[in-house]
């Protein structure tokens, strides 16, 4: 019965919302109530055949949803170009005291010796190895891998096929794009961005953008 399920709102209504919908819709303990999105004026959005994601409003509706659905949880469904929005939404969930729910695809390989914090999404084929730690509200994409004893902070985006080696330390609000590789024992600073295909074998400063093989700093971003 629905009253025995955890009500969940998806924050975002684009492609990643369809991904999260697929993962959580397979869980018998979850009741998906819809999405929040800035693209108002559209009452519903269909994603693929037969999948309809109801847009409830923008994130200002969260307090109302929390009152309407006791035990409400939320999950982020936003990509790397919206890291500022992801950061803002995490802060808002904290203010509203709405917990996040973790979404792990059935084909992801998660070591029972690893630790995944609430709100993280692990997509199909991703691997999280023993004694690694993944912080809150991260997104681990298709076929990305995190080796043993790596540590990811809050709100880290790991792109498709990216590889994070052992003992790597990744700060908060970091983007590691598709196909990037981080060598063992490297530290990636807060707010940094590792571009697609880069190979990182030296520490990356806070808010730096690195490119190439080996990766080099090309510019700095403003803090979120």
Uncertain runs:
none
Q: Which sheet architecture does the biggest sheet show?
A: 8 strands, mixed
CATH class of the largest domain: Mainly Beta
Helix fraction bin:
10-25%
Distance between the termini: 41 Å
CATH homologous superfamily annotation of the largest domain? Hexapeptide repeat proteins
Strand content range = 25-35%
Number of domains: 2
Total strands: 24
Supply the number of helical segments: 3
Order of helices and strands: EHEEEHEHEEEEEEEEEEEEEEEEEEE
Give the strand order of the largest sheet, numbering strands 1, 2, ... along the chain.
6-9-12-15-18-21-23-24
Properties at a glance:
224 residues; alpha/beta; Rossmann fold; UDP N-Acetylglucosamine Acyltransferase, domain 1; 2 domains; eight-stranded mixed sheet
Element layout with pairings:
Layout: E1 6-11, H1 15-25, E2 30-36, E3 44-46, E4 52-57, H2 62-68, E5 73-76, H3 83-96, E6 103-104, E7 109-110, E8 115-116, E9 121-122, E10 127-128, E11 133-134, E12 139-140, E13 145-146, E14 151-152, E15 157-158, E16 163-164, E17 169-170, E18 175-176, E19 181-182, E20 187-188, E21 193-194, E22 199-200, E23 208-211, E24 216-220
Parallel strand pairs: 1-2, 1-5, 2-4, 6-9, 7-10, 8-11, 9-12, 10-13, 11-14, 12-15, 13-16, 14-17, 15-18, 16-19, 17-20, 18-21, 19-22, 21-23
Antiparallel strand pairs: 3-4, 23-24
